[in-house]
Amino acid sequence: MDGINQAAHGWTVEAKNFFIDLLHEVRGCNDIRGNSVDNNLLESWSNRLNHKLGGFTISSVQNRFDMLYRWFHIFNVITSDSGFHWDRVENLIKSSKKK
């Protein structure tokens, strides 16, 4: 669970907010395609987090991004215009636990 466990990897409220700011900076750029992120961007995020707060690996940043992406995707399914899709949400949650 590298990158998800807050206590073990320093994902404090400040770190989470800073990471969200980093995500906003690259919104719509070609370095993020679907649920994958360019390695150079991951390294940049890791370096900036380390410079500001310290203690972040590229792996922990990748895992945090993956987790946020899954949560965002599940949220979009739940709140879609066509209503609730609990079967799809359940399948998304099950598949994310297998990773």
What does this structure look like?
The chain has 99 residues and is mainly α. It has one domain (6-98). It is built from 5 helices and 2 strands, in the order ααββααα. It has a two-stranded antiparallel sheet with strand order 1-2. A hairpin with a 2-residue loop joins β1 (32-33) and β2. α3 crosses α4 and α4 runs antiparallel to α5 (86-98). The longest helix has 21 residues, at 58-78. The protein is elongated.
What count of domains describes the coordinates? 1
Number of discrete helical segments: 5
Largest sheet: 2 strands, antiparallel
Average pLDDT score: 71
How large a portion of the residues is in β-strands, by DSSP E?
Answer: under 5%
Globally, the shape reads elongated
**Order of adjacent strands in the largest pleated sheet:** 1-2
Structural class: mainly alpha
Number-wise, the strands total 2
Radius of gyration: 15 Å
Distance separating the two termini: 10 Å
Order of helices and strands: HHEEHHH
Instruction: Give the helix level as a range of percent.
Output: 55-70%
The low-pLDDT segments are: 1-8
